[in-house]
């Protein structure tokens, strides 16, 4: 992300001085866990608003648990769900649903081709009363692991 910001600042400086930018970093180089999870969260909200549902606001507590789960799955190189009772009580929610995915090079694909094509995961992402979301991502050995939490109080 640091390199991406530097490239953008350099590009702005070049445009401001009248110089023409010849090249910038490729998107593949710029993908960090933060970028991946933010793109996933944006895509979750896109599929919700496409269906006239409220966009979900990110919650720091939910993000923390989602990121922790993504790291654990990447370390074990397997998909599994965490104890949602713990997330629910620590984040002060009455409902928490979890979706997980792995193996998608792009976060958009993880949401739209992965999670949305699973009846159970789609139902969680499109839970109408939900108002909060947390997202976490971790890459290990070239494989992305994604966790998205959806919740309401």
From TrEMBL:
Superkingdom assignment: Bacteria
Keywords linked to the UniProt accession: Signal
Pfam families, A to Z: CAP (PF00188)
Keyword Signal: yes
Annotated signal peptide: 1-21
Record carries keyword Signal: yes
Membrane-spanning intervals of the chain: none
Domain SCP: residue ranges: 42-147
This protein's name: CAP domain-containing protein
The species this protein was found in: Nocardioides taihuensis
């Amino acid at each position: 992300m640091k390199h991406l910001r530097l490239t953008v600042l350099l590009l702005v400086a070049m445009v401001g001085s009248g110089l023409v930018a010849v090249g910038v970093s490729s998107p593949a180089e710029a993908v960090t866990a933060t970028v991946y999870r933010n793109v996933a969260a944006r895509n979750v909200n896109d599929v919700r608003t496409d269906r006239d549902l409220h966009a979900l606001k990110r919650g720091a507590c939910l993000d923390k648990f989602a990121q922790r789960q993504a790291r654990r799955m990447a370390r074990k190189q397997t998909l599994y769900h965490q104890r949602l009772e713990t997330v629910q009580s620590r984040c002060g929610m009455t409902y928490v649903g979890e979706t997980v995915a792995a193996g998608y090079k792009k976060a958009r694909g993880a949401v739209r081709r992965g999670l949305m094509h699973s009846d159970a995961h789609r139902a969680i992402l499109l839970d109408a009363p939900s108002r909060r979301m947390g997202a976490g991502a971790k890459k290990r050995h070239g494989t992305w692991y994604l966790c998205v939490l959806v919740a309401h109080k």
